[in-house]
Amino acid sequence: MVAKLGKEKEDLQSELYKETGENMILKRKSNQRKELLEESRKKNRIEQDLKERVLECLHQADNGLGSLHDELAKAKRDGQEWKRWWDLATKQKKEVREELETQIQELKEQLRSSESEVVRERHLKERAQRAFQICPKAWEEKCDELNTNKDLTSYWKEQYESLKSQGMGWLNHRKHLNEILDEYECTINLLQPSVAAYR
């Protein structure tokens, strides 16, 4: 009987050791699973945080790209508008230049004609001076006519200088338009690489 009880005791102790070992193994596996689960949760939190940051960056990039698109579109519109004004100014400048050249040529011819008239009147004056003793009234008329021709000569000279000054004004305006157009082209060239980087 004692031997039988001793045998049962040994069997129970053996079973206890076995159960204890299995429990330790299960506990170790459970701890490992907990560690893996916690590590997985940390990774998920990190991935979620990264995802949110990426989405925020993408949103900011979209906003920045939209702003760049708007700026580029405005720059293009402004450039087209200035080009239209440039073309118009160039056309008008050409027309004005041609008109000025025609008027200047006419003024030169009129000036030469007036100068010739002055020379002719001077000769007439000299002749009139010789005839003054005979016809004083005719002398007065010739003097008045000569003064009128001098006034005409001064008038056409003033017209010539005025047209010349107007032509210089058009040239300065064209230079100003060139500078503005260059600025818009420079702005467009600066914006295009930024837009290409976001596409």
From TrEMBL:
<keyword id="KW-0175">Coiled coil</keyword>
<feature type="coiled-coil region">
    <location>
        <begin position="90"/>
        <end position="124"/>
    </location>
</feature>
<protein>
    <submittedName>
        <fullName>Uncharacterized protein</fullName>
    </submittedName>
</protein>
